[in-house]
Amino acid sequence: MIVIRKVDELRKYSIEQRSKGKTIGFVPTMGFLHEGHISLITRASVECDLVITSLFVNPTQFAPHEDFDSYPRDFEHDYNLAKNADCDVLFVPAREEIYPEGATTSLSVGDLAYVLEGKYRPHFFDGVATVVSKLFSATLPNKAFFGQKDYQQTLVVKALSKDMLMGVEIVVCPIVREPNGLAMSSRNKYLTDDERNKAKILFQSLVATKEFIESGERNRKKINAYLHDSLRKLESLKIDYALAVDASNLEEPNEFDEGSEIVLLLGTILGKTRLIDNMVVKVPITKYNEDDRFQIGLK
Ligand code: PAF
User: Fold this and answer.
1) How does residue 299 score in pLDDT terms, banded at 50, 70 and 90?
2) CA atoms within 13 Å, Cβ hemisphere of 181
């Protein structure tokens, strides 16, 4: 694995590789790698000839009161993990490489940036879109790999690639969880042992609500109430949002259609740590249409 720190050098590398017909898989990260990131690198190495992973704590996606300064950073740890996974290039740019002095251009995502997570972090998605587009320009990937844990972010980067004609395929990979169900995140480092244990309520509530939907409930308000009741068992958990929305467009119909996909989205705070999580649930089909009856021999 090689380490590249300069944008020009990385772009030259990528142009050379692509001219040889190699496909490039890109895994953008803010470092402090964990098994979730490693699963993205592994998937990229299966689907592409070369894997580039970036480590860059992006200042524009943090508000002044947020944890940019204290965000965990450990180059040696990241280097070893990426090297042991199938990463070919570790891209570690300095701030001025990504935001050259005097740079004023940024991207604006639109409505998707200001709902749900964006309501509580209004700067966040424009910052993500801006840095991801810069990183794509430096990396020139065929495919980019993102974790489903940041569900809204995956919709934002899909829209980014499509709207800005980038031609980068966005691959969304499953959430990797700790043994108690807590979704892996670099920010889990902020949790005390007690909080880490209590944080399992997020996964438990998602699973219980999934089962509630699978038992036949399609009414959005009832599903939301069930999810809230489940989370409220942990009194110290602050709930910013916990709700069921259409997985494809985040819309909130009164009743979800049979066969459609719901995503249960959670934005919460435990102690000083922001915890997000989600689960996609397929609404069961309870009625057979004529074709189904034919298929299963009821005619
Ligand atoms: O998901 C993250 O770690 C970040 O938002 C990303 C995509 C690397 C952009 O800074």
Assistant:
1) very low
2) 15
Domain count, the chain: 2
Q: Whose CA is nearest to atom 8 of ligand 1?
A: 29
Residue 29 Cα, ligand 1 centroid: separation in angstroms? 5
- Taking only the tens place, the pLDDT of each residue in 22-70 is 999 999 999 999 999 999 999 999 999 999 999 999 999 999 999 999 9
Give backbone dihedrals phi and psi of 230, rounded to 5 degrees, phi first: -65, -45
28 lines ligand 1 (CB under 6 A): yes
Dihedral of alpha carbons 37, 177, 116, 60, sign: negative
Domain boundary among 149, 173, 197: 173
Instruction: State the sign of the Cα–Cα–Cα–Cα dihedral 84, 85, 87, 92.
Output: negative
| pTM, rounded to two decimals | 0.95
**Best residue among 71, 123, 128, 157 to mutate for probing ligand 1, ranked by most atoms within 8 Å of CB:** 128
Same domain, 211 and 68: no
**Tell me: the pLDDT tens digits for 75-103?**
999 999 999 999 999 999 999 999 999 99
Q: How many CB atoms lie within 10 A of CB 34?
A: 17
37 is catalytic: yes
Domain that holds residue 39: 2-173
CATH of the domain at 89: 3.40.50.620
CA separation for the pair 7, 13 (Å, rounded):
10
Nearest Cα residue to atom 6 of ligand 1: 29
